Inverse folding.
C-alpha cells in the first residue's frame, strides 16, 4: 500500500467525517483485491451508520468475474447485512479494485452506485504498491473524501493515507 497516495487534505464530501479504518482492516481489504487479481476484487464495509468508521470489511466473490467491473455476490451481501444488523451496525460502503487504472470511479462505478450514503473505496493495483482512495457518489457527482488509518485496536494517533 502506498501511504503517500491518500486523499487530498482539506475535506470530505458534504461535511462527512471521511472514512476511518484501522490498519488491519485496510490490509485485509487490499490483500483480498490482490488475491482476486487479474479480476477485480470486491467486498462490503461495515460500521456504525453515518459515522464514517469501518469496523470490518467483508470480502466477497466478484460474480462478474471481470477485470473491468464487479458485482458483489448477492447472498454474501445479504449475510453481511444481517450480521451487521445483529451487531447494531450497517453496511456503510463497498470496495473494489481497479486492476489497471488509477483509484477513481469509472463511469460504470458511478452509474451503478447503489446508495448515496455509502463510502466507495477503490484499491488501485496499477502500480507496484496498491493505492487506496474513498469517494462519496451522490446523483452522479463524485467527491473524494479523506481516508484516515487508525491504529489497530484503537489508541494512538491516526495517520492519513
Amino acid at each position: 500500500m502506498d501511504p503517500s497516495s491518500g486523499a487530498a487534505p482539506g475535506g470530505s464530501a458534504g461535511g462527512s467525517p471521511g472514512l476511518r479504518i484501522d490498519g488491519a482492516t485496510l490490509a485485509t481489504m487490499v490483500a483480498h483485491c490482490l488475491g482476486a487479481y487479474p479480476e477485480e476484487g470486491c467486498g462490503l464495509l461495515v460500521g456504525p451508520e453515518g459515522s464514517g468508521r469501518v469496523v470490518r470489511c467483508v470480502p466477497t466473490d466478484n460474480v462478474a468475474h471481470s477485470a473491468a467491473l464487479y458485482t458483489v455476490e448477492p447472498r454474501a451481501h445479504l449475510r453481511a447485512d444481517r450480521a451487521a444488523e445483529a451487531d447494531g451496525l450497517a453496511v456503510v460502503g463497498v470496495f473494489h479494485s481497479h486492476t489497471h487504472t488509477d483509484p477513481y470511479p469509472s463511469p460504470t462505478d458511478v452509474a451503478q452506485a447503489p446508495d448515496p450514503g455509502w463510502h466507495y473505496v477503490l484499491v488501485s493495483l496499477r502500480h507496484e504498491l496498491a493505492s487506496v482512495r474513498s469517494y462519496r457518489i451522490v446523483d452522479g457527482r463524485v467527491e473524494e473524501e479523506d481516508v484516515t488509518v487508525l491504529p489497530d485496536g484503537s489508541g494512538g494517533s491516526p495517520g492519513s493515507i
About this structure: Residues 51 and 99 are 29 Å apart (CA to CA).
